[in-house]
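FAQ: What does a ligand-bound record look like?

Like this one, built around nicotinamide-adenine-dinucleotide:
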Amino acid sequence: MAKIINGKKIATEFCDSVRDRVSELKMRGISPRIALINASNDPASEIYVSKKEALAASVGIESDIYKFTKGTKEADIIELIEKLNNDEKVHAILLQSPLMEGLRFRELINHISPNKDVDGLTSVNQGRLFSGEPGLVPCTPLGVLHLIHSVHEKIAGLHAVVIGRSSIVGRPMTLLLLNANCTVTALHSYSRNLEEVCKTADILVSATGHPKIVGKNFIKPGATVIDVGITRVIEADGTRKIIGDVDFDEVSEIAGAITPVPNGVGPMTVAYLMYNTLKLACCY
Ligand code: NAD
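The answer part, i.e. the structure of the complex:
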């Protein structure tokens, strides 16, 4: 039976260390502050943004939510971003995705100053990650790497397989693991023989959003399996549930270590948002 990687507990401990560093920074007269821009009409975004606001408050980070409603134009958001870029009190800016219809994410994200780009999504920070230079790295893959290190002292030379190649999860995850000297295979919706390739992985990270796509036939015995996927479902009795990419029950029989959904990667993503805000407040 696999070791369960308790993302909630690891994130809580990590946030404790962030809180300590925030207080030290405040004693030096710097009060870390994040701007959370919500131009989404997805109800889940509302929940995510308020969770981020609550966690920020709990670690001593100031936050402001900027909510945009239907009919918002890209120019309105760009105007706000430019104001925030020039506001010395604001260290970090997050543009919550998905955006409402008619707004282009890549067009807007690149208006955020790379020095306030808390989720490492501007082309500048993505380029830095590509070339192995220091910069801001997306929070979810950073959180995943932390979870991997909780069960592996060394990962250099291990074969890591990443399913998914989005610019927010899969692609930066692939690069982070490559920069950590893993041998990395990137799989996506056009890849063939998924099962066969995954079965050679020492570390398997799945980020597709397809519930239970990863079954026991994908797993090398003893492998570490990290499930990033989140699919919201409503059961026949009306209860709401979150399902991951991995069939937890069958995979946990074979894997060496596995993250649950919920309480695996999710809490780490928000914890790293706090960490990146702190980093921007003290180092940029
Ligand atoms: P996305 O839709 O942008 O990308 C999905 C990727 O999966 C694509 O690159 C696609 O090629 C690949 N894919 C889709 N179907 C596939 C298949 N059958 N075989 C192989 N590859 C396939 O999504 P995303 O933003 O990268 O998010 C992925 C999942 O992770 C979603 O469920 C999302 O909700 C979740 N997520 C979780 C967190 C967290 O904190 N836990 C954070 C971000 C995203």
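Follow-up question: can I read anything off the structure? Yes, for example: The first helix runs from residue 7 to 27.
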